[in-house]
């Protein structure tokens, strides 16, 4: 057995695990099947435009992810709001705003809900009560893993306009699943941590550089600078006793292995002896995200981003600067829980979203659409529905030296960048303990 640690999968979980191991001075090799790092967060070029495959945001409370950015030297390439502030647009021209107050947590968001003009005063009061109740719920309570969010909210008086104009806004974006299919547990975690934690916990952070610069290029440089290796286009076929990684007939022994791939791939890589429940992971399923990219010949909005209700547009972001566009405006529309759109041809997407954007941004009616294209992530997250919490495995397997990472594992977080990073840190900690035990025995 060599002293080298193998990390399989170059998404955020694998990047984090490899970097954390390298930072301890131990040799590590990161294997990625694709010719790039970054996993579900990457960029590509299209006619001189730099395009992120999807819009990724984070919150100030995402401390592990923000720490990773700092260690990668990428912290200067994100922008975090000084104060939680979301403009909410409607197709009929109404305008709402959710902005945190200056009270200390957990009372800071009560003024935002109380002043949310898209709801009636009575609906706002009921929403405050429901939000407080959700913030008090224990995300780790197994009973909440069995309850759907829609039913829970209905039982707390959240129906009709409140459901449509408030709860869907946050829940669908945070969990990437419809509220009638979402489990209460992960929703409670989001509200408890982000919305009812520290006063600044929910302040929104957005990349100001392409994702490939933010994560992939910076990660490879950081790992290699610490003595690690990054092997791209290196597809691991199986994990064998030892532990050993198998690549196209070549076996490479390792002191420890971290498998940081999506649950479908991990189940195929990890032996049943190491993870007897691996066949159950398929029950986590997959939930898609679709992004609609629209380039106009002129500016149609001065908002950096906005949430939208009663529209196929859910969230829209100004990507002009990040994309490197010199003239006009580049908007990216992010659609979560996008099962209805994932297989719609681009022509059909255009027919629906261009008029929708014109209703939201009247200036778009006089603008020319220079380009429109769609990016689709069929397996953007697992389906965070009732019962999914019980299927998420811990980082440790039954084989000493073999560990799991990924936002789908039991991180305590929903399937997010923060969850992915936390999983990588957990796996790296277990690797370190395992190697320390071997060294002392």
Automatic annotation (TrEMBL):
One of its GO terms (molecular function) is oxidoreductase activity. Gene3D superfamilies: FAD/NAD(P)-binding domain. Keywords: Oxidoreductase. SUPFAM superfamilies: FAD/NAD(P)-binding domain. FAD binds at residues 32-33. The keyword Metal-binding does not apply. The keyword Cytoplasm does not apply. It holds the Pfam family Amino_oxidase. It comes from the Bacteria. This is Squalene-associated FAD-dependent desaturase. Residues 12-431 form the Amine oxidase domain. Its cofactor is FAD. InterPro entries: Amino_oxidase, FAD/NAD-bd_sf, Flavin_amine_oxidase, SQase_HpnE, Zeta_carotene_desat/Oxidored.
């Amino acid at each position: 057995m060599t002293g080298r640690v193998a990390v399989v999968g170059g998404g955020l979980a694998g990047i984090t695990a490899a970097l954390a191991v390298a930072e301890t001075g131990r040799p590590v090799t990161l294997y990625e099947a694709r010719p790039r790092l970054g996993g579900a967060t990457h960029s590509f070029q299209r006619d001189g435009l730099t395009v992120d495959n999807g819009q990724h945001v984070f919150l100030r409370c995402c401390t592990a992810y923000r720490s990773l950015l700092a260690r990668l030297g990428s912290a200067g390439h994100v922008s975090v709001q000084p104060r939680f502030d979301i403009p909410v647009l409607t197709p009929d021209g109404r305008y709402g705003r959710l902005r945190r107050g200056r009270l200390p947590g957990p009372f800071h968001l009560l003024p935002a809900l109380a002043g949310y003009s898209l709801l009636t005063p009575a609906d706002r009061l009921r929403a405050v009560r429901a939000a407080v109740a959700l913030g008090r719920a224990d995300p780790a309570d197994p009973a909440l893993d069995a309850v759907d969010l829609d039913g829970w909210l209905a039982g707390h008086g959240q129906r009709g306009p409140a459901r449509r104009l408030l709860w869907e806004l946050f829940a669908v974006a945070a969990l990437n699943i419809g509220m009638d299919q979402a489990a209460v547990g992960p929703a409670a975690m989001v509200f408890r941590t982000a919305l009812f934690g520290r006063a600044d916990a929910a302040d929104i952070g957005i990349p100001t550089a392409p994702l490939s610069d933010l994560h992939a290029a910076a990660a490879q440089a950081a790992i290699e600078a610490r003595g690690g290796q990054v092997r791209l286009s290196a597809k691991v076929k199986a994990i064998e006793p030892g532990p050993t990684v198998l690549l196209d007939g070549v076996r490479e022994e390792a002191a420890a292995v971290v498998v940081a791939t999506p649950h479908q791939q991990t189940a195929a890589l990890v032996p049943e002896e190491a993870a007897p429940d691996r066949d159950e992971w398929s029950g986590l399923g997959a939930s898609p995200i679709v992004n609609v990219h629209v380039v106009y010949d002129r500016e149609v909005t001065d908002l950096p981003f906005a949430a939208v209700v009663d529209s196929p547009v859910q969230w829209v972001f100004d990507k002009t600067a990040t994309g490197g566009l010199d003239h006009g405006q580049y908007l990216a529309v992010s659609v979560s829980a996008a099962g209805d759109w994932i297989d719609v041809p681009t022509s059909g997407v255009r027919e629906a979203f261009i008029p929708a954007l014109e209703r939201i941004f009247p200036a778009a009616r006089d603008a020319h659409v220079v380009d429109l294209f769609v990016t689709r992530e069929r397996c953007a997250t697992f389906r965070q529905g009732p019962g999914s919490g019980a299927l998420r495995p811990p980082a440790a397997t039954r084989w000493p030296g073999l560990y799991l990472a990924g936002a789908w594992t039991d991180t305590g977080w929903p399937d997010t960048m923060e969850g992915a990073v936390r999983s990588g840190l957990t796996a790296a900690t277990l690797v370190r303990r395992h190697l320390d035990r071997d060294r002392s025995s």
